[in-house]
Amino acid sequence: KRRERNITSLLRERLPQRHVNLLEQAGALGDTLGVPVYAVGGFVRDLLLGRTNLDLDIVVESDGIAFARELARALKGRVRAHTKFKTAVVIFSNESGEEERIDVATARLEYYEYPAALPTVELSSIKMDLFRRDFTINAQAVQLNKGHFGRLIDFFGAQRDMKDKVLRVLHSLSFVEDPTRILRAIRFEKRFDFQIGQQTTRLIKNALQLELIEKLSGRRIFHELEAVLKETNPLNCLHRMDELDVLRRISPHLRITPTKNQVLEELENVIKWYRLLYLDDSPEPWMLYLLGLLMGCAYPEVKEVARRLSLSRRQEEDLQDVRELSHKCLGLLQQWVAGERTMSGLYCILSPMRTEGLLYLMARTKTDDIRRHISYYLTHLRKISLDIGGDDLRNMGADPSPVYARVLSRVLGAKLDGNVPTRKEQLEFAFSILAEETAKAHDQHRHRGRA
Ligand code: CTP
Asked: What are the pocket residues of ligand 1 if the criterion is a CB atom closer than 6 Å to any ligand atom?
């Protein structure tokens, strides 16, 4: 017989007090309404694995939307309900004024349609709710009602799997029901340093044989791929995807060659370095890794992959632009390191490039010197701005025109090269350029008059 485990002390140890309060509040509300309430899914899994996860998912064995409305009232928040799915999100502000959300779902027996191949058994509704989930570790619940607070519910052997570090599905049709779970399996395996179980591996291989990946929509694949690439070490996942033949089934162009692998490894280092420096401007992981995965591909092949992943026109253009530009940039950078190496020259080469492209360049170049200079551009040069602006040019009597941009860009170049560090010097330089431009314009006017 199953030994029951209560994880109240774990909850109290690991969670911030306000979250414990929140759980208790939800449980108390369940008591008032006379319904069983549970925290479920990734929240429970991460709690047991000692990882921070404050995304609370609640399941109630009754009308989830009605429960959510009551909870929102208690928390002075609001509810967004999805009647069709009988789910709701409670949105409220915590004491620090930050917005928080709690997902609430309904567990109901009649709600699930089960593949005919599965034996029909009587299940409680929470058991049914957990049974339709992907892996045992994600199919645990903690009861929140007062008398049972902290009661861990594990119908499918998640405790043992966590101890053995094994990722297992709950039944043999799991990947047929939802093939994106193949990618989720890989993601969780690498994130938690688990092993996909033997039987589960076989089921993945069967699903692949049935070409279920090929049948997935581009949107869904892209969504899962994005999630993979947002992991801390996406490359591990990509390797595993390649090993299991998942990458080829998404598109043969995505297969990892030794050359790509080298760049991908560098890319991962560069991304980690960049994230340590800048928490605010976060480059798009999907674009970075796609750049690496598509190295050596031609334009139409990239187009094919973009179509397979249903990239938006904008995303595809950005990707193609960065690829083309990075090619040009590398050539120009090679000339630059061999020449006078002015900072204005470096700025001129790199400023048209978006962050993803710059990081990709850093990963691709074999020259340390070039890598160092791109890093200098990212950390210093890029942030330098002028101490003068259009208003100053107007005050000099120049009418707003495209000349403004030309003048300011030359002054910026001079500042980058250290020639006009102060505002006063920049004003003087701008004035001299304006005078030059005016003289030139007059000249042209005279010539044209004569002709
Ligand atoms: N789930 C599932 N099958 C899927 C997606 C989700 O069974 N294809 C279930 C799992 O039980 C999962 C829950 O829905 O725990 C929530 O999924 P998700 O929002 O992806 O969250 P997490 O499991 O917490 O994953 P992550 O830590 O990456 O957010």
From this structure: 41-42, 133-134, 138, 178, 180-181, 184
CA distance 345 to 417: 9
In a mutational test of the pocket of ligand 1, which residue from 126, 134, 162, 194 has the highest number of ligand atoms less than 8 Å from its CB?
Answer: 134
Give Cα 45 to chain centroid, integer Å. 21
Q: Which fold has domain 1-164?
A: Beta Polymerase; domain 2 (3.30.460)
Class of domain 255-383: mainly alpha
Whether 19 contacts 57, CB under 8 Å? no
For residue range 62-110, what is the model confidence (pLDDT) as tens digits?
999 999 999 999 999 999 999 988 999 999 998 888 999 999 999 976 5
Q: Find the 41 Cα to ligand 1 centroid distance in Å.
A: 7
The CATH number fitting domain 165-250, selected from 1.10.110.30, 1.20.1250.20, 3.40.50.10380, 1.10.10.10: 1.10.110.30
User: Interface pTM (ipTM) of the complex?
Assistant: 0.97
Nearest Cα residue to 196 out of 171, 172, 167, 173: 167
